[in-house]
User: Fold this.
Amino acid sequence: MPSNSLRDSSRPDASTLETFLKHQDHRLARAWFLFSFLVVAILAQNILMGQELASESRPPDLTGIKCIVDGKRNANIVHALPYRDGLIYFSSQSSAQRFRIFAFEKRTSTSNAEASYIDALQTKANHQLALTGQYVQTTCPLSNEAIDLSLTTRLAGLEVAFANPSLLNVIEQQKSMARRAKLVFGNATFESTFRPIGQLPVLMADRDIEVNRSSQTK
Assistant:
């Protein structure tokens, strides 16, 4: 039969047990701290992502924005169509449907008048994308060169910049607003001059390039 001294030596004394429990408490406290930190970090990330998604999905302000088809009526947030990498807005569903038929479905026109009408609709749609801040100018519309922000003119409610004074003068000498709009917002020019706001390179963020819309767009 083992002696009492051997049994006692195999048992931890009170101080050893207390030290062990304190060590375990510290480990649990550190684990709980790390767990809490991770939970807070994940929640913060989710909140930031939610705010970014909300800002991206926030509809533009359509104050003063006119319907692309019926220019006498205001555009309505309810009547929208996807166009390029954005949305364009109309005053009614019938206007939106008319644009869809002519600009999307009718790829070939039967007359010069119809071709001109389709071209005008698409020019207005491009203009509205820029006017609502969904697209931003990145180059000169006439030369595709870097723009000089001191050389601007207001065109249909939008500040448009040019590479040099002579190119700015070309636009200002156009007597017809439709002709001016065509030179800046026509399909070929728009595709090379404007970019979706979400696809701008980082360098553009460092330049003071922004879309300025007049408070009274007619």
Summary: The first helix runs from residue 4 to 10. Strands lie at 76-83, 86-90, 135-137, 148-155, 158-162, 194-196.
